[in-house]
Amino acid sequence: MRLIKTEDAEGHVLCHDITQIIPGKFKGRAFKKGHIVKKEDIPVLKSLGKNHLYIWEMKENMVHENEAAEFIRDIVMGNNLKSGEIKEGKIEFISECDGILKVNRESLLEFNMLGEMMMATLSNNVPVKAGERVAGTRIIPLIIEREKLNHAKEILKNRSIVQVIPYKKKKIGIVTSGNEVYNGIIKDRFGPVIEKKVSEYGCEVIGQKICPDDTEEIYNAIEMFLKQGADIVCCTGGMSVDPDDLTPAAIKRTNADIITYGAPVLPGAMFMLAYKENKTIMGIPGCAMYNRITVFDMIFSRTVAGEKLSLRDIAEYGDGGFCRGCDECRYPNCGFGK
Predict the structure, then answer these.
(1) Which residues are in the MoaB/Mog domain (predicted)?
(2) Are 84 and 221 found together in one domain?
(3) Range of the domain at 226
(4) Nearest residue to 97 (alpha-carbon basis) of 121, 129, 134
(5) CATH at residue 122
(6) Is 29 within a domain?
(7) Residues 137, 18 share a domain
(8) What confidence tens digit (pLDDT) does each residue in 142-186 have?
(9) What is the predicted pLDDT for the residue at 169?
């Protein structure tokens, strides 16, 4: 830093806060550290007794924190995001739609290892709402070398670090199995639960079929909904390993590609995921009927965002896949599924 005359300070960056005192009225910061002096600031500064100022020497290869934050914003921010106001080299990113937040974790790590700049995000694959803040970045020093910014751009290679994938409206078929429900001994509770959950994503339930514990009838119901144009068939009931739990066998009979039968998530271990061409079939365990959030919620949200999950995607839920069972559920504002 160096000392210059105040009248020569236009365009320079202040190295420290400047306090203003008006007896009996005001005492506080008139100009913040990092402020770029404007022409109209000069008489105000002189009225505060500042005939000389300490300023940063803005060499040709140096960039002010706010300009640097704009540069970083343009290389890390992906689709369906907007940026907030830049303050002191900090900028936040806000979702423009309901959807799934996607974080390129490898790129985020590379970026944060560069030094003099940082970025923090919500967890990868977390559901977000329109207007929700999902990430932020900040330049650490007041000024930063342009070469450092260009290196960050080179490292990322046009790969945004964060983006939001919007939900797409899907048609849902529900297949419920169980002799006790089919024969009217007990009332079906699965259908209303699934219908409520999928409606929160703007999806349409095209029908529900209640079947006895019979592999053939469950299979026929699944195929019926697929032919009727269902994008996702949710199969409820009969997902355990008891002899009369026949839903997994019925799903396999459709010749769908079985991704997994079982998931490292509690509640939700007995979950099944399968794909038949561009259609999705889910075997939903009984816990979805009485637990507010289960593996179904995590997988369904990504499915309606257009993802086709692999076995690895499912296996990765083991880290964070244990629900604490809080008295007041705060999902997705918790560690479950992260």
Answers:
(1) 173-303
(2) no
(3) 171-318
(4) 129
(5) 3.90.1170.30
(6) yes
(7) no
(8) 889 999 999 999 999 888 999 999 999 999 999 999 999 999 999
(9) 95
